[in-house]
Amino acid sequence: MDETVAEFIKRTILKIPMNELTTILKAWDFLSENQLQTVNFRQRKESVVQHLIHLCEEKRASISDAALLDIIYMQFHQHQKVWDVFQMSKGPGEDVDLFDMKQFKNSFKKILQRALKNVTVSFRETEENAVWIRIAWGTQYTKPNQYKPTYVVYYSQTPYAFTSSSMLRRNTPLLGQALTIASKHHQIVKMDLRSRYLDSLKAIVFKQYNQTYETHNSTTPLQERSLGLDINLETKFKSGLNGSILAEREEPLRCLIKFSSPHLLEALKSLAPAGIADAPLSPLLTCIPNKRMNYFKIRDK
Amino acid sequence: MDSYNAPESTPSASSRPEDYFIGATPLQKRLESVRKHSSFIPTPPRRKIPQCSQLQEDVDPQKVAFLLHKQWTLYSLTPLYKFSYSNLKEYSRLLNAFIVAEKQKGLAVEVGEDFNIKVIFSTLLGMKGAQRDPEAFLVQGLILSPRLEYSGTILVDCNLCLLGSSDPSTLAFQVAGTTGACHHTRILSKSQLPSENRQGKVLWTGWFCCIFGDSLLETVSEDFTCLPLFLANGAESNTAIIGTWFQKTFDCYFSPLAINAFNLSWMAAMWTACKMDHYVATTEFLWSVPCSPQSLDISFAIHPEDAKALWDSVHKTPGEVTQEEVDLFMDCLYSHFHRHFKIHLSATRLVRVSTSVASAHTDGKIKILCHKYLIGVLAYLTELAIFQIE
């Protein structure tokens, strides 16, 4: 087993909290039941990790096995990334083809490989006709960086894909292209919607928000949080109180306002009855479901 | 350096309102007037904007660097009875023994199975406001793990014998083991321990200080040491155990120090007023709105230069901050917000303020970012602690 692969697997396993370790290893399904039984999970973590690496070596784990483990880790820790939303559209008059997962995966991978030569692409299908894609980016001359991958969750029955905001932004156009072509669309657009919580994004984008909310109430786990609302203000200060404050200043005040709550829309709606907000509510606060945006920039006209 | 305009006073023993007023500190006067909704308008309270005090030049920036950029939980502490700075070694030994005993009782000490924790007492030179203030001191709990095993030989360079350097000004009592006998086993570490921190990793830190504590110092007898402000970083359970030992040993009492919205807005104004060469953090306010079904958090972050410009426009009294200016500053922020969102922030609860100088949370958590104004921040906190004790 390549040393870089071993190191990568080791670092991935080290990130996994001990109480999730067996679940994730089972989902990975790379080490056999027998092998896992030989591991004493009650030891100190470093010892457990060493043992697991040893077992992976026995089975000759490859980079694609390691990448799959990484995808599974990310599926369990989705909230560690901020997710953007892309919407694709077909050209006018184009037929709606039946989606073929195999063809999509082949096509997606080919497009990236042709452009960059060095790239690791891995897939994992999940329920709801979704596929998780992991891309580790390299260049024509350098090997892929496994530690800064981009993740994409594409719901094949919809025109939407969610991507983890990656540091390596120069690859975004290529990623968009690959997604569009492989899924037989014509155009791709980034929406002004982002959140750490894929479920919230899905709710907004798949227009299921009201429905999902009712079930949220009874089954919401404590950690589940809704979208936030971010508003970037760059407006001049105008006070009613005292006309002289900042009167000579030409520059606007640069502010960023964030609203967050487990149930954002409901919380905002309750502000007016509570007397905290003037009724009717400012349109900025009520347009998330309709406009499907959750960050705005406001400037003086 | 006197941070009050009003003359120093001892808290009045009488409970009559008039006596209360005459002998009261400005803080008490202000609160009394607020409580009574009285029309009596005392001299608007003022505070000096924190400046770089002379005393701060004595504080070695490197020695206090570890105090910055950490979140501290605040407590007020009543005066310590019969505490002596020359007994720090003894206190280390006693506290170590206490912790070991507690661990054996099975009470939770958050250190993990094979680790030993050792506490070290040391003084923090220069951490005071006026000369009268007692010297601040520090307690650190370190992990020592000679039994930790990695692959192959793992050795930690064990310098437990270093009983202070020959330089008397360091005053750091490095206490070795339990009875003074050292572990001479040479154990080198594979993980990079910083070379100056050879005892092990710091797991818990607590420090006691008093910045401009005149109003309290005057009221207590010589047997007491007044260090009303206590800051802790590390696991809550460790704080509890160490706090229990102090309470037993020095007949004192810890009480969590919360910071209400009124004081948070003062802090925001004062820290915005501080002159900064460059800003390391944005100026941010966080409000909590208790609405159904669950709360809403509103964060208002403003570019620090713009916050300063707004403050400068509001600020009229050179070198000082007045109640009126704080109120106007906050009202400006409220009105700017209301203009866009039609929400009355004044009807919500301010829970956190954050600037390039420091950030504070209503639950009594503080993080100091700027070495220059460390004393200034602590002075305000000492004031709050003293008020809570009295």
Automatic annotation (TrEMBL), chain A:
<dbReference type="GO" id="GO:0034080">
    <property type="term" value="P:CENP-A containing chromatin assembly"/>
</dbReference>
<comment type="similarity">
    <text>Belongs to the CENP-N/CHL4 family.</text>
</comment>
<keyword id="KW-0539">Nucleus</keyword>
<dbReference type="InterPro" id="IPR007902">
    <property type="entry name" value="Chl4/mis15/CENP-N"/>
</dbReference>
<dbReference type="GO" id="GO:0007059">
    <property type="term" value="P:chromosome segregation"/>
</dbReference>
<dbReference type="GO" id="GO:0005634">
    <property type="term" value="C:nucleus"/>
</dbReference>
<protein>
    <submittedName>
        <fullName>Centromere protein N</fullName>
    </submittedName>
</protein>
<dbReference type="Pfam" id="PF05238">
    <property type="entry name" value="CENP-N"/>
</dbReference>
<dbReference type="InterPro" id="IPR052011">
    <property type="entry name" value="CENP-NAC/CAD_complex"/>
</dbReference>
<keyword id="KW-0137">Centromere</keyword>
<keyword id="KW-0158">Chromosome</keyword>
<dbReference type="GO" id="GO:0000775">
    <property type="term" value="C:chromosome, centromeric region"/>
</dbReference>
Automatic annotation (TrEMBL), chain B:
<dbReference type="InterPro" id="IPR025204">
    <property type="entry name" value="CENP-L"/>
</dbReference>
<keyword id="KW-0539">Nucleus</keyword>
<feature type="compositionally biased region" description="Polar residues">
    <location>
        <begin position="1"/>
        <end position="15"/>
    </location>
</feature>
<dbReference type="GO" id="GO:0005634">
    <property type="term" value="C:nucleus"/>
</dbReference>
<keyword id="KW-0158">Chromosome</keyword>
<comment type="similarity">
    <text>Belongs to the CENP-L/IML3 family.</text>
</comment>
<keyword id="KW-0137">Centromere</keyword>
<protein>
    <recommendedName>
        <fullName>Centromere protein L</fullName>
    </recommendedName>
</protein>
<feature type="region of interest" description="Disordered">
    <location>
        <begin position="1"/>
        <end position="20"/>
    </location>
</feature>
<dbReference type="GO" id="GO:0000939">
    <property type="term" value="C:inner kinetochore"/>
</dbReference>
<dbReference type="Pfam" id="PF13092">
    <property type="entry name" value="CENP-L"/>
</dbReference>
